Amino acid sequence: MPTGRNQRADATRNRELLLAAAEEEFTEKGLDASVADIARRAGVAKGTIFRHFATKEDLIAAIVSGHFAALIAIAERLLTASDPGAALLQLLTETADNIRQNDLLFLQSITGNDSRVLALRDELHATITALVTKAQEAKAIRPDLTGTDVFALMCTPVHAVDFLPNPSPDSWKRYLAIIFDGFRPEGATALPVAAPDWG
Amino acid sequence: MPTGRNQRADATRNRELLLAAAEEEFTEKGLDASVADIARRAGVAKGTIFRHFATKEDLIAAIVSGHFAALIAIAERLLTASDPGAALLQLLTETADNIRQNDLLFLQSITGNDSRVLALRDELHATITALVTKAQEAKAIRPDLTGTDVFALMCTPVHAVDFLPNPSPDSWKRYLAIIFDGFRPEGATALPVAAPDWG
Amino acid sequence: MPTGRNQRADATRNRELLLAAAEEEFTEKGLDASVADIARRAGVAKGTIFRHFATKEDLIAAIVSGHFAALIAIAERLLTASDPGAALLQLLTETADNIRQNDLLFLQSITGNDSRVLALRDELHATITALVTKAQEAKAIRPDLTGTDVFALMCTPVHAVDFLPNPSPDSWKRYLAIIFDGFRPEGATALPVAAPDWG
Amino acid sequence: MPTGRNQRADATRNRELLLAAAEEEFTEKGLDASVADIARRAGVAKGTIFRHFATKEDLIAAIVSGHFAALIAIAERLLTASDPGAALLQLLTETADNIRQNDLLFLQSITGNDSRVLALRDELHATITALVTKAQEAKAIRPDLTGTDVFALMCTPVHAVDFLPNPSPDSWKRYLAIIFDGFRPEGATALPVAAPDWG
DNA sequence: AATGAATGAGGATTCATTCAT
DNA sequence: AATGAATGAATCCTCATTCAT
């Protein structure tokens, strides 16, 4: 016996289906994935997509927001870890793993105006910065590194894999290890340019 | 009255104009830059573009080929340098600098079928591998690194900058330095996964 | 707990709310006013509108019917006035005033098939014809004018205002006066074409 | 042997075909006539319409402009007539005749921002005002009438016909005669409202 | 070889209407 | 009776590509 609650449950399910379908389509076809294809993949009518997301851009913002939120959760959890250096490496590992399945990095380019996305991005940046500071106090990473640097480099291991002819699903771990080795405090080269501002 | 020779000269010039205009447009607007805008920027008619490049994809392949060729030239020149470690760093620096001006990375996604582009990419990969080997023989970089690894990581300094809210034009130098620090042989962490195959 | 009676009362109220909201929306946005906006303005769900009016066209027909009914009431009241000429002018004045607030003229274009609207229109035409005849018997207006003529010209004062760059709300009175001056019997020009048939 | 000139001639012809088709479609279906239908009627592809008119609104502006230009030509020609009163009547006659075939009055509603249309409208208004002044100096029409009044009333004879169940193509002449009788100077009623401003 | 007009498939979005709850 | 989610046809417009000149 379906209640009003059930109806809402159906709509919620459609929303999830759409987000999932959109992620897959965007991953496969990039930003030009069509709303029609997303709807088809989700098994709903084209119009339904606009009930849930007023605009294609809104849909993208929702996806990006979801990922940022997930990354924030990861980072906050790691903030209480006992070994700050390991925690930072763990953050980068989980981040890359989260991103690896759906490389939505390019989606960010469109969400530059969405205040919700921007707020989440700032929050993630702040949490990462806190983690970086802790790791530096523990002398686990080089002292000239900033949270902004880590934020910028966070996705590069996954991205590096994209330039390979036959990307294997695990190679990002290799590139993360190399980059993290660049974070070591011992024998670090003096950096040629000052750290970029965040805001 | 233009002679056959002159006409050919004009056509060649148009080709160059179109390639230059296309690079600028793609840099500014990404893959969605329109053929019409490129033609307008080059100062030729829309139809002319298709006389030179059968397809928008062909045009992109031509651009990407040009950049690969430039990178190959750089790499080959550095092959004869006396300090192989410095040469490798120099390669990555010049590559990033070359890319920074016209980020054509996204263009690669489309050229996966173009045999000319693939051949050039293979050639670049081979030259980089030779440089890497020399640097390893000189013990300038860690021995577990492969040419494929360097190829994959080559663009990441530039890409990292794209994730910053206010990208400053020089920040890639900072990220290249950090990543290159990860190439140091001393105290390198054992890499968790094997190097990916190239072909 | 609403009883059957209460529910019916609610439904009636909803119908009125919808009609009022629809008039406002149509006035503001023309025929393209959306059913969704009307529902929102009325404070009911979109589905409810279709319980009351099977079709958007039906809703429009209901509005037009209401206005025709109002005009009929005005005309019938004036049928008993002592000065038939003044009564005719009064009819045109009240009509224009009624129309001015909600220009529903454009709505008529759609209701050409609705028998209820057509019947009301015929009734209004008949009443106007009676008023015209009385005015002619009193020699207040030119004898070659027909009820059909007056019906046709009835809305023109309001419409004339629409062609002005800055319409002022009272200008229709000016145009009604001018047109009504064309109704004067003295010195009337012979009309070049016969009066149109009504049905 | 077709030259560049011929090609241009073809394009010009398509432009005319499109304008004609658009007028017919708009006349039949109102502002909601679809671009696709217009293209089909003109016998060209949908895309062609946008080569000639960047926007549906632009197309409408072109139509309205054409009509305003025609009316201006009529008015200017009549400015030199010997009998100014007859000239004014003639203007209204030719205007109505011009408009009768394609009632594009409603199209004006959309062109409120198009400076070209606005300029033509102002020019027409000015010319009409000149004609009115001349007619008043000749005591052919009432002295309290303005060019703005005539502009506003210009289309009403045609519009009146639209409210008839079976509009006959000539009835507008009847309504023009009636309205023009309202312009007579003798026995004119004092107008209840001041003449509206133009700009 | 160059031009630019024409083509038509494809894209995002809107909206009247239907339907499950 | 009311709700609001889902539908899918229709709309304006864009753009790579073709073609007549």
TrEMBL record, chains A, B, C, D:
The keyword S-adenosyl-L-methionine does not apply. Residues 12-71 form the HTH tetR-type domain. It holds the Pfam family TetR_N. Keywords: DNA-binding, Transcription, Transcription regulation. SUPFAM superfamilies: Homeodomain-like (SSF46689), Tetracyclin repressor-like, C-terminal domain (SSF48498). InterPro entries: DNA-bd_HTH_TetR-type_CS, Homeodomain-like_sf, HTH-type_TetR-like_transc_reg, HTH_TetR, Tet_transcr_reg_TetR-rel_C_sf, TetR_SbtR-like_C. The keyword Magnesium does not apply. Coiled coil: none annotated. Residues 34-53 bind DNA. This is TetR/AcrR family transcriptional regulator.
